[in-house]
Amino acid sequence: MSESAPQRHHTIDYIELTVTDLGAAKSFYADAFGWQFTDYGPGYAGIRSPHGEGAPEVGGLRQDEAVRVGGPLVLLYSNDLDQSVQAVKEAGGQVIEGPYAFPGGRRFHFTDPSGNELGVWAEQ
Q1: Which runs of E-coded beta strand occur in 1-124?
Q2: For residues 32 and 88, what is the distance between their CA atoms, to the nearest angstrom?
Q3: What is the pLDDT of residue 6?
Q4: Is the distance from CB of 62 to CB of 44 less than 8 angstroms?
Q5: Binning pLDDT at 50, 70 and 90, where does residue 1 land?
Q6: Across the strands, what pairs with 117?
């Protein structure tokens, strides 16, 4: 994790996803959301910030034998929810809920190739 940018007190700084196939996970997230990665060996890849080279990484993919289902739900923001649904499907993810409306927007949930559940939301 980089320390090149000031941190905001009590904000989520880094999210790490456990995956069962690092190569497949990198391909999925790159294809579905345009994420880029920094490899740190055969079992870990950092998720680069969308704010450019000088910004700290926002998370990582850590390879393990199994994914434990449950725990906090990570939500991504989208400017075009319908396009995000299509991108997830085309990249090999499975939409498991939605899209559905909620006060202030719409969202859907999906699983990645390792079985991690995430959500994507957009304003109305």
Answers
A1: 15-19, 37-39, 44-47, 59-63, 74-77, 94-102, 105-111, 117-123
A2: 5
A3: 60
A4: yes
A5: very low
A6: 111
CA atoms of 121 and 124, how far apart (whole Å) = 10
Specify the DSSP class assigned to residue 23: H
What is the model's pLDDT at position 12? 78
> What's the number of CA atoms in the CB half-sphere (13 Å) around residue 18?
10
Q: How confident is the model at residue 72 (pLDDT cuts 50, 70, 90)?
A: confident
CATH of 15-123, one of 3.10.180.10, 3.40.1160.10, 3.30.420.40, 2.40.30.170: 3.10.180.10
